[in-house]
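We were asked to recover a plausible sequence for a given structure. The inputs and outputs are reproduced exactly as logged, with field labels preserved.

PROBLEM: sequence recovery
POSITIONS: 142
GIVEN STRUCTURE:
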């Protein structure tokens, strides 16, 4: 039996064509299907480094392609969310190009969320940091 799958996205945001193997006798052509197609493609827009120790919690995100006013950092529950959106008009006149990303990082237990700070370095690295709460036995749990 041959099923036709509509070209829509699954609930997880993965294209149906990457979830199901291709039809062997259909008009979609032949290509090699493998489970690796289920792995989401990365956009390589930003890379991050997360560090947590007895002193504090730090996230460093490469945001060279964004201006500081294009970035939004906020705490939502146990996560720090970083969003960037840069809109640029095309030189030809009509239309524009948009570059955006959104990342979430879990804030470890014991981090002083009220003291969380963020800043962009001259090299284009967004640095988000917060000290550990002052307790007798402070440990970084992730």
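RECOVERED SEQUENCE:
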């Amino acid at each position: 039996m041959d099923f036709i799958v509509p070209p829509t996205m699954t609930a997880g945001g993965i294209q149906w064509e990457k979830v199901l193997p291709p039809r062997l006798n259909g008009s979609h052509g032949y290509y090699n299907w493998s489970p690796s197609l289920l792995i989401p493609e990365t956009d390589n827009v930003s890379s991050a480094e997360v560090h947590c120790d007895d002193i504090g919690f730090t996230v460093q995100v490469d945001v060279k392609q964004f201006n500081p006013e294009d970035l939004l950092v906020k705490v939502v529950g146990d996560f720090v969310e970083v969003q960037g959106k840069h809109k640029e008009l095309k030189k030809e006149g009509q239309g524009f190009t948009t570059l955006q990303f959104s990342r979430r990082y879990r804030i470890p237990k014991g981090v002083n969320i009220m003291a969380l700070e963020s800043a962009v370095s001259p090299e284009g690295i967004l640095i988000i940091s917060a000290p550990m709460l002052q307790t007798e036995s402070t440990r970084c749990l992730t």
